[in-house]
Amino acid sequence: MNTTSPSATACRWMARIVxxxxxxxxxAIAIGEGMPNPFTRAMSPIELLGFAGLSLVVxxxxxxxxxxxxxxxxxxxxxxxxxxxTMANGRITWFIVVMxxxxxxxxxxxxxxxxxxxPSETKPPTGAAGS
Length: 131
Description:
Elements: H1 6-33, H2 45-63, H3 68-88, H4 94-98, H5 100-114
Helix pairs in contact: 1-5, 2-3, 3-5
């Protein structure tokens, strides 16, 4: 018996759709701009922080498909790591802010699911058949 609430399911699928679109956009940017190799190119600490943050964001989006709470937390930590390099450039773009959405939705889905009653916790109605 499935006890997942409709709101938890909606949050989960919205997070999955938005994170998939963001991963596709990140991949398109990486292919178009050329992904820097942090092992062969000397990068400043702020660039390394941004690179690590973006890696955590993508990893969190992918993890969220299976482990919603862990994936949501990891992606939000990654976005927070991206704030430093973005602020060094002088402004936060809308794309960085949109990357927060899947993490928040993954965590909301998990928290809504944890509040749903389990089949063993539900009581049969009073006056059930056989009385």
